Each structure stands twice: as C-alpha cells, then as structure tokens.
Amino acid sequence: MQRRTWLKLGLVSAAGLALVGGGLALRAPAWTPEGLSASGRAVFGAVASTVLDGSLPEDAAARQVAVDAWFKRLDDSIAALPPHTQAELAQLLSVLASAPGRWAVAGLGTDWPHASVAQVRAALQEMRHSRLALRQQAYLALRELTCAAYFADPGTWMALGYSGPLDI
C-alpha cells in the first residue's frame, strides 16, 4: 500500500468509529451526569482489575468496598471534566462496550466482565503500542482515569510510598 492509501484508510476508520461511537452513545450512553452506566462500569471494572492488580485489597469484602469507593471517585472525576471531554469519553466507553468496538479498538474478543486479567492486560498493551493514535489515546484515557480515581484517596498513597503532603 502507498502512504496516501494508508492515510485515507486511517481517516475513514476514524470517521467511522466516531460515527459508530456517537450512535452508540446516543442509543445507550455509557456515561450520563448521574454517573457510569452498567456498560461503562463493566469496561472500567475490567480495566481497574488489571491496572490496579496488586494494589487492591486481597480480602474479597475489603476489595469490594475499595472498588465501590473507587467507582464513586471515578464518577466524581469524570463529572469534573469539561463537557466535550465527557462526551468523548462517553463515546469511547460506548464503543468499547459493544462487541465490534471492543474488538476493533481493544482487540479483545471476550466481554469485559468475563475477560481475565491476562486478556485485559494484553488488550491494553496492544492499545498502548498501537500505531494508531486513536487506540493509544483510548488506552491513556482508561489508564489515567483509573489511576487518578484510585490514588485520589489518601488511604491508597502508602502503596506508592507517599506519606502525604508536608505540614507547613
């Protein structure tokens, strides 16, 4: 293929994903001002179980409490984003929640809630190292929001070796 053909293919693919994402976001939004929908929670839940692997409590009950608190902080973090960024994130989550979108963007054949940590890790790494900037941006958005919401809680700072702000 020639370079011009690749550029056209990339442009058409990006436009198609934006169109599909917009349609899916209108039909079944993954984010509303009330918070993440079930599909958005499924995507972020799988990403969190992978990205935060080793940081979450081992005990099942304590883990569930930590995840529930993390989802609340995640909703708050997304609500603090500018409206256009919220809309783009809603489109991304709607695309990733659909089977064709999950396969095209993340390269993941298994539904998010049923995917193993290894499968999600491989999908995230594929997105991270992709030649397509769209996939890299999707990876960064998922990872950065996951980490920001988790480490916003002072109770998680010790996992980083951060004792908190200095008293002045």
Automatic annotation (TrEMBL):
PROSITE patterns: TAT
Protein name: Twin-arginine translocation pathway signal protein
Naturally occurring in which organism (per UniProt): Hydrogenophaga defluvii
